[in-house]
Design brief:
Chains A, B: Belongs to the isopentenyl phosphate kinase family. Two copies of one chain form a homodimer. Chain A is α/β, with parallel strands linked by helices. Chain A contains nine helices and twelve strands. The longest helix of chain A is centred in the N-terminal third of the chain and has 24 residues.
C-alpha cells in the first residue's frame, strides 16, 4: 500500500510572509503523519519560499533561466523549507528523509518531466519516508524551469504505482459556486465552471490544473485540508474524491 | 569533451577542524575552474564535514543506519559543504549547480551503486557545472550507507563516458617509497608496495582504493594536487597518470 501525499505550500508556509514556515500547521500535519500508513511519500509545495524567488528570476514552469545563481536562489530557498518540513516530521517520530528533485529530474525539449523513482522506491523499502518538494528542474534548451509539487505528485503516483493520492491544501476540497465541497469529480467538465485561477500569485497553477492532473492518474486522489488529513491517512474518503 | 574532476575533502576542508572549509584552497580551485573545459562535472569529498558525522553514527560504506536522524545529520553536513563549494565556484564565474547524490542514487543488496546520470547529463547540455559530493545513499537491507566521492567519480566517468578524470587531493600524485611521484600506473602491482592505508581517519578508504577504482575506468585518470589543477584543466599530464 503506497500513499503519495502533498502538503500544499499554503499549509506548510505563511504564503503572504516571505520564507516563513507555518509551524502550527506543520506540527499538526507531522502529528497526523506519525500515525500514518506504511509506504508514504510526502511532497510539499513552495509557498512563500519558492514563488518569490521564482518570480524574481522570471522563472516559471515554461520560462527558464541559464543563470546558475538563479537556480541556486530558488533551489536553496526550497531546501530551507524542506529542512524545516523534514525536521518537523522527524520530531514527530516520522523517519523522514529529504529528496531534492533538481538532483534527479529533468525535462526534455518538449517539457516532459523525467523523474527516475528508483531511489525513492529504495527509501520506502528501507522504511524511510521520502520528502520531496517543488523545485527547479533542468530543462533541455531552456536552462532550468520550475517543477511544481503537483507535477511531482502525478509523476510519483505513476512511477511508484501508488494506491492512494492525497492533496492537503488550505481548502477543504474542490468548491462549487456556492462554496460547498464537491464530493466527487469524475470528469473535468463536472467542475469546469467553478474553477477559476488561483487568487494568490502562484507560478505553478491553481485548482483547475490540479484537478486535470489528478483525473489523469490511475489511483484515486483526494483534495482536503488539514482537518481532513488524519481521516485520509486512516483510509477514509475526505474532501473531494477525484477518480 | 567531458571531464570529471574530484576535489578531495583534504583540498576543500581543513580535515582536522570540524566542519571548516579551506577557503584559500577553495578559491584557488575555483579560479582554476573558471578557465576550465566545456563539459565539467565536479565531485567533492567530505573532509571534516562528512567523516565526523559518519563515525558518530557508526556508518560506513558497508555499515548502514535505519535512523532518519543519522541520515540527515551526515547528509546535512555534506550539503553545507556543498553550498560552500558551489558558492565559491559561482563567485569565480563557474555556472555551478548542486547535485545531492542521496536524492538519486541507491545501492542494491549486493552493495552495487546505481546512479542514473540523465539529470547530470541534461545539466551539462544546458551549460551548467554539476557539483556532487560524498554522501549517504540508501542501501537495500542496510538502511543508508556512505557513498564516497571516489565511487561517484568512477560511476559518473562510466555513465557520462568521460574523456578525462582528475583527482585533486593534498598529494602531488601517487608516491613511491622515496616520496617521489610515480608518473604512470598501468597495473595495481606497479605500486602495491607503496600504498598503505590513509593516515587520517577516512571511512571511504585511502590511495590504494582510489588507484584500484581508477584503473578500472575506460578514461585515463590523473592524481595531482592544487598546484597541478590548472595544468590538468589545460589538458596536460600532471601528477600520476593512471591508465
Amino acid at each position: 500500500m503506497t500513499t503519495v501525499l502533498k502538503l500544499g505550500g499554503s499549509v506548510v508556509t505563511r504564503k503572504d510572509e516571505p520564507e516563513t514556515v507555518d509551524e502550527t500547521n506543520l506540527e499538526r500535519a507531522a502529528a497526523a503523519l506519525a500515525d500514518g500508513p506504511g509506504d508514504l511519500v510526502v511532497v510539499h509545495g513552495g509557498g512563500s519560499f519558492g514563488h518569490h524567488h521564482a518570480s524574481e528570476h522570471g522563472v516559471s514552469t515554461t520560462e527558464g533561466t541559464h543563470e546558475a545563481v538563479g537556480v541556486t536562489d530558488i533551489h536553496g530557498a526550497m531546501k530551507r523549507l524542506n529542512d524545516a518540513v523534514v525536521a518537523a516530521l522527524q520530531r514527530a517520530g516520522v523517519p523522514a528523509v529529504p529528496v531534492h528533485p533538481f538532483s534527479l529530474a529533468w525535462r526534455d525539449a518538449d517539457g516532459t518531466l523525467h523523474l527516475p523513482a528508483d531511489s525513492v522506491r529504495a527509501m520506502l523499502d528501507e522504511g524511510f519516508v521520502p520528502v520531496l518538494h517543488g523545485d527547479v528542474v533542468v530543462h533541455a534548451g531552456r536552462g532550468a524551469t520550475i517543477l511544481s509539487g503537483d507535477e511531482l505528485v502525478v509523476s510519483l503516483a505513476g512511477s511508484l504505482d501508488a494506491d492512494r493520492v492525497g492533496l492537503c491544501s488550505d481548502v477543504p476540497g474542490v468548491l462549487d459556486d456556492e462554496g460547498t465541497v464537491v464530493p466527487r469529480i469524475e470528469r473535468f467538465e463536472d467542475v469546469a465552471d467553478y474553477l477559476g485561477g488561483s487568487e494568490a500569485t502562484d507560478v505553478t497553477g491553481g485548482m483547475a490544473a490540479k484537478v486535470r492532473e489528478l483525473l489523469a492518474l490511475d489511483a484515486p486522489a483526494q483534495v482536503f485540508d488539514l482537518d481532513g488529513l488524519a481521516g485520509f491517512l486512516d483510509g477514509a474518503d475526505t474532501g473531494t474524491v477525484i477518480d
